[in-house]
Each structure stands twice: as structure tokens, then as C-alpha cells.
Amino acid sequence: MDGTKMQELRELVEFLKANEIAEFDMEQPDLKVRIKFAGEPAPAAASGAFDLAQLSRLVSSAPGSVPASPAATAHPASLGAAPDTSAPAEKLHEVKSPIVGTFYESPAPGAPSFVQIGDQVEAGQVLCIVEAMKLMNEIESDIAGEVVRRIANSGQPVEYGQPLFEIRPR
């Protein structure tokens, strides 16, 4: 891969990080790209929303110009990023979305969140709402413990099986 093509792929990775996009998959007849970031999310974009036109430009220029391979996988470390040298992370429980919809951290706009980072929760306690087809579905914790991280952002679309929270079990 020449320097220009590698730079385009790096720009795509930086765009995904800057907009807190944890996973990105793209398949074309002669190419498959999967980018998945581990650990803490990248800092939030200043605007809170990302530029779809910029993403489209990056996707159309970078992967189309990458040499064809049956299954190419890009990892930040393989793109010149520093490898993760931190100690192994503790095992946290992920609460995942049971449906496709829109994530909300509070029962109404302006209302306090159901839970905050550091809160102790019980199994069955409501953590958030996922709206699907105008129905508000309360998502409950399936384990007792401490809320360590909220992965999804309020108003963000979520997929089936997408992690929403990380909880340190008691």
C-alpha cells in the first residue's frame, strides 16, 4: 500500500475515533474492512454529531483504493498507533441493547439520568430507555454492581447486542 492510500486509511481511523464510532465494517465484492477500537472511547466531537459527507468521502476514497484481499482487517496498532501497554483490564459486565432503537439516558429531556457513573445498581434496576417504533423500552440491569462506564450517548441509535453500559459486579 503506498503512502497516499495509507494516509487515507489513517484519516478514516482518526475520523472514527473523533466521532466515538467504536466499530466500523465495510464490505465490497473484493474487499472487507473491519475496524474495532478497544478500551475507552475517543474524546467526543465538539459538535456532538459527525459529518456524514466527510465519512462518505473517506470511505469512498480509502477502501476503494486499498489493494483487494479476501479479508483485510485494520487495527490502530498496525497503522502506526502506539500499542496498548497498560495493565490488563478488569473483567466488567456489559449490559447490551436487546433491540434496535434510540438510546436515552433519562426518562425525559432535561430530566436526571437513570444512573450515573459510580452508582451502585441492583439487578432489575432501570438503566436507560431504548425507543423503538415510538415505544419506550426500559432497559434493566441484569446484574448487581457499580456502573463503571456508559458506552452509548443519549439520542444515539443503537443496534441489537450493542454494549450500553459496563458494570463492575459485586
Write the layout of secondary structure elements.
Elements: H1 3-18, E1 23-28, E2 31-36, H2 52-65, E3 93-96, E4 101-104, E5 120-121, E6 126-132, E7 135-140, E8 145-150, E9 157-158, E10 163-169
Antiparallel strand pairs: 1-2, 3-10, 4-6, 4-9, 5-8, 6-7, 8-10
Helix pairs in contact: 1-2
Please give a quick description of this structure.
This protein has helices spanning 3-18, 52-65; strands at 23-28, 31-36, 93-96, 101-104, 120-121, 126-132, 135-140, 145-150, 157-158, 163-169. With 170 residues, it is of the alpha+beta class.
Principal-axes shape call: globular
- Tell me the Rg in angstroms: 18 Å
Instruction: Give the oligomer, counting copies of the same chain as homo and different chains as hetero.
Output: single chain
> How many distinct beta strands?
10
Q: If strands are numbered along the chain, what order do they take across the biggest sheet?
A: 3-10-8-5
Low-confidence stretches: 41-48, 62-83
Major beta-sheet overview: 4 strands, antiparallel
- In whole angstroms, the N-to-C terminal distance is 48 Å
Mean pLDDT: 75
Approximate helicity band: 10-25%
Per DSSP, the total helix count is: 2
> How many domain units?
2
Based on secondary structure, the structural category is alpha+beta
Into which percentage range does the β-strand content fall? 25-35%
Order of helices and strands: HEEHEEEEEEEE
